[in-house]
Amino acid sequence: MSILRLNYASELRYGVLLDIAQRVNTGQDVSLSMGYLNAIWQAEASAMSLQSLGCATSPPNVINITGPELLSVRRVAEEFGERLGKTARFGGTESSDALLSNAAKSYELFGRPRVSAPQMIEWIADWIRAGGSTLNKPTHFQTRDGKF
Questions:
Q1: How confident is the model at residue 138 (pLDDT cuts 50, 70, 90)?
Q2: Residue 136 in domain
Q3: Which of 55, 84, 87, 118 falls 20 to 30 Å from 27 in CA-CA distance?
Q4: Phi, psi dihedral angles at 65 (to 5 degrees)
């Protein structure tokens, strides 16, 4: 068995990065209550999940799956603002902690993700500018009390 812990997979139609981009694009405040995050491209998270079948063990092999970059929500929002021609607005302040994962083990097993955070930001900004469709399912990543 493998136990996979996934932090914030994103793609063009869904994910934390899309949530941030949409808020910037529509002029809404971006909450800073969860001030930092890791993110990974959904296709790579899916590929790693499938590859984990080959290294299942008993007791379970615990593997964190996420991108290598520590991303500042504030900086990500500002980058989306630059790409979308908008000014990022913020609500709250960064907390002293965040839900982050060290995915070094997954990189040893499956290799490092090929899609970087800057590439994801660029693709998502282009998608929004082009009027691409979304799944319209907010992630609620900024929620800190566990109530979604």
A1: confident
A2: no
A3: 118
A4: -125, 115
